[in-house]
Amino acid sequence: MRCPYCGGLETQVKDSRPSDDHSAIRRRRVCPDCGGRFTTFERVQLREIMVVKKSGRRVPFDRDKLQHSLAIALRKRPVDPERVERMVNGIVRQLESMGDGDVPSETIGKLVMEGLKNLDDVAYVRFASVYRNFREARDFEELIGELTADEGEPEK
Fold this sequence. Notes:
Layout: E1 12-18, E2 24-30, E3 37-43, E4 50-52, E5 58-60, H1 63-73, H2 81-97, E6 102-104, H3 105-119, H4 121-131, H5 137-152
Helix pairs in contact: 1-2, 1-4, 2-3, 3-4, 4-5
């Protein structure tokens, strides 16, 4: 593992333990060249996921990009980071379990929308406004109408 401080290639693992949700291994590392300390995470990857954009372009799936999008939608919202991490893990597992390695970007957007709907209504509306490319206030009204209609449905 390359040292993020000096670029040295011979870092040493000082401590390994599972993450809080046991979906990754957290490793504390130290660089013998500069003494820098940093943390890495090791996760299981079942298959390489390629995202197919609306333009037809294919790009590798980036978990960090997904987390960043969620962080923007959830900014200043009272949501436990562990719940967000579980949501991200769930989305990644769903994508990996799909038969094909090519996943349309719309599929990822829909999975995020489903997850946010169960996590936080405000974050759901924020994400939807970008994902659905809202142009007018009426677009927000329609989405909020859908949200309140779903909440008003009796439990099955």
